[in-house]
Each structure stands twice: as structure tokens, then as C-alpha cells.
Amino acid sequence: MLYAVLKLIHLLSVIVWIGGMVFSHFFLRPALGELDPPVKARLMAAVLSRFLNAVLVLGTLTVFSGLWMIGRVAKQTVQAGLPFNMPLEWWVMSGLGLFMWLVLGHIRFVLFKRLRRAVDGLDWSAANRVLVQIRHWVLFNLSVGLLIVAVVVIGTST
After folding, report:
1. Boundaries of domain holding 102
2. What's the CA gap between 113 and 45, in Å, rounded?
């Protein structure tokens, strides 16, 4: 039962994380292009504050639930007297998932802090430059996340 609950938490966290990146990159950001720079920067800072804090928790849940599930399967396999050979899809998911979590940390703790400073200092050109950097990193992380989903769903062998 615990394994199923952790798998559900893992999957729901990934859905919100990836879905939020899709929404912000393809729907929210283009719609904000029509706003004046101060309004756009303030709104994005408010949205990103909520989203990045939530995704930091969800990303952490994703990492730790995934590691726990791998450990659980490994333990049960070894206890059954069999060798544990982690599937390649799990290696890809684990490695790239940890990488995504680190990129999220960079966005949240480096770039977002710069955005907050620019907004607080009413420096709209600096805020826009940081928003462009955030957009690029979000698109990168989204691409990695979608690659992980594809590898896990389709597999690495045919």
C-alpha cells in the first residue's frame, strides 16, 4: 500500500511540475506580452513565487519518492535471492530527474532572487532580462521532463 501511495505522489508531483511549465511557457508568458513591463514583471514575480515554491516541494517529493521506490524494489529483489539490475529507464529517470531538480534550484534560488531584486528596485529592463533567462531554463527543464516521460513510457528497447 505504501508503495502505491508513493507512486501516486510521485506521478501527481510530476504532472503538476510539467503541466505548470507547459502552462507558464506556452500560455501565460505569451499572453503577458501585451502588458506594460512593470505590470508584466510584477505579475510574473507573483506567479513564479507561488509556482516555484510549490514545485520545489513537489520536486523534492518526486526525488525522494522515486529513490524510496527504487530502494524498495531493490531490497525485495535481493531478499528474494535475485540480483537487482535497475532497468535503463529507471537510470534515465533518476539521473535526469535529479538534474531537473538541480535546474529548478537554480531557477528558484538564483534567477528568481534576481527577478525579485529587479522588481523591488523598479528596474524593469533587468526584470525582463531575468524573465528571459527563466524562460530559457524552464523550456530546457520542460524538454528534459518530456524526454523522461517518453523514455519511461516508450522504453529504451523495442
Report:
1. 2-154
2. 10
